[in-house]
Specification:
Layout lengths: L9 H20 L8 E9 L1 H11 L5 E7 L5 E9 L3 H18 L2 E6 L9
Antiparallel strand pairs: 1-3, 1-4, 2-3
Helix pairs in contact: 1-3, 2-3
């Protein structure tokens, strides 16, 4: 039951990719091995009603709900998690999916994050 995903504005995708590259550079500076799959968090800002639709679509991509929070301004955030590597191709695909979810659900994609994985045993 796959959704027909809308096209993403390429200028928006390019802007998100600039931010993604900074996160990847910071991870690399901390010894990250991008090919190691790990939990990656993504967040969206929106309403509880919109979040239900986000969850329906995001679950098709293997994303699960982590948390919901309200910030000081009263904005609601939905935090999701998926497990994947963070190499360039994987992150580009994740960002595109999140921007498509943004379009379909009327929410605002607010980025992704994860912890560096060095492959070392802790």
């Amino acid at each position: 039951m796959s959704q027909n995903l809308p096209p993403v504005d390429e200028a928006r995708l390019a802007a998100e990719w600039e931010a993604d590259r900074e996160v990847l550079a910071n991870l690399a500076a901390n010894g990250d091995v991008a090919r190691i799959a790990r939990p990656v968090d993504v967040s969206f800002r929106g309403s509880e009603k919109d979040f239900e639709r986000v969850l329906t679509i995001a679950s098709q991509f293997g994303m699960v709900e982590l948390d919901r929070e309200e910030d000081e301004e009263g904005d609601l955030f939905l935090f999701l998690e998926c497990v994947q590597p963070v190499d360039e191709a994987s992150i580009r695909a994740l960002t595109r999916k999140c921007l498509q979810i943004e379009i379909l659900c009327g929410v605002e994609y607010d980025g992704w994050g994860c912890e560096a994985q060095t492959g070392a045993v802790h």
